[in-house]
Amino acid sequence: MEENRRIFIRKLCEALEKRGFVTSDPDLGGLVSFELIARREQEKYIIKILHNVDTFRILNAVEMVRLSRVTGAAAVVIGERAGNGLLEDGVVYYRHRVPIMSPLTFMDYVDGRRPNIFSGPGGFYIPINGVAMHTIRERLGYSIGFVSNKVGTSRRSISLYEGGSASTIDVYTKLEELLKYDISSSIDILKMVNEIELPVEDPGEINEFIREVIDNIVKTGYDFYSMKKAPFDAIANRAMDTMFLIGLFESLSEKMGRALAIKNVSEIFQTEPLIITRMETTKDNIAKCPVVSLHELREASSKDSLEMIIERKKNLQ
């Protein structure tokens, strides 16, 4: 099973690269909340790959959505099965409100053929372009009552559709036949993820080292976001400014694999890698990631002074 998964990830990388994407290393090392990061110009995806999407857990979903919000990438799960059945092509599913697609649906999506059907309680639904529906209905001279009678649904439902609500496929088919116009709205998975309300982050037990890093990063004017299942431990950023993917290392011994993964993902996201270590060190960088000791971080009293330290480390590579 694991070998099949590795083959699938490699083939997905190849398919994306043929379409102009750059992708992260398919082996980021260790347990992570995603398998791949992919970018094509400003289009970015955080991709989780599962054989059965029922195994997708809420903690994983929260981490992917949080990373999506900070980086502007769309979070998506690519899977093959749900329960005992295969995922249908051309349909977007959701688990913990994160979009889920079959491999073919995802490739159609990145090729510009966005689906307009999603799975919900009780069946499949089509999101309606309410403005288009209202405009066409009035152009044809149809009242809401006339449309509701023809379609076989309530007047309130017609008003909801014109407000942008989704309908069942059966109702949508009747609406399209009556209005003689495609009033469906394609699904934008980035927009859907951005509408998810995240729970308040529970920091759990934080050791003294991590607490001091957070306090000092925030002191310099950056926002700090902890990550639990990523190659990096945190993200620090300011609006319209530099973003850092941060690895928090107690020491630098035997950390090359993680540093390489942080560097790799930062290149895809077009962000800056940064290693912060508790121990004093003479190393200025590892795997082309600037290394800042906790002592140096304490000495940085502002955003500019921190960035000067990091820039100096980069120039010493």
Notes on the protein architecture:
With 317 residues, the protein is α+β, with helices and mostly antiparallel strands. It folds into three domains: 2-115 and 189-194, 3-Layer(aba) Sandwich (Trna Endonuclease, Chain: A, domain 1); 127-179, lambda repressor-like DNA-binding domains (434 Repressor (Amino-terminal Domain)); 208-315, Trna Endonuclease, Chain: A, domain 1 (3-Layer(aba) Sandwich). Helix content is 40%, strand content 23%. Strands 1, 2, 3, 4, 5, 6 and 7 form a seven-stranded mixed β-sheet that branches. Helix 5 packs across helix 6. The longest helix has 17 residues, at 2-18. The chain is elongated. The chain starts with a helix and ends with a helix.
Brief account:
The protein has 317 residues and is an alpha+beta fold. Helix content is 40%, strand content 23%. The protein folds into 3 domains: 2-115 and 189-194, Trna Endonuclease, Chain: A, domain 1, CATH 3.40.1350; 127-179, 434 Repressor (Amino-terminal Domain) (Orthogonal Bundle); 208-315, Trna Endonuclease, Chain: A, domain 1 (3-Layer(aba) Sandwich).
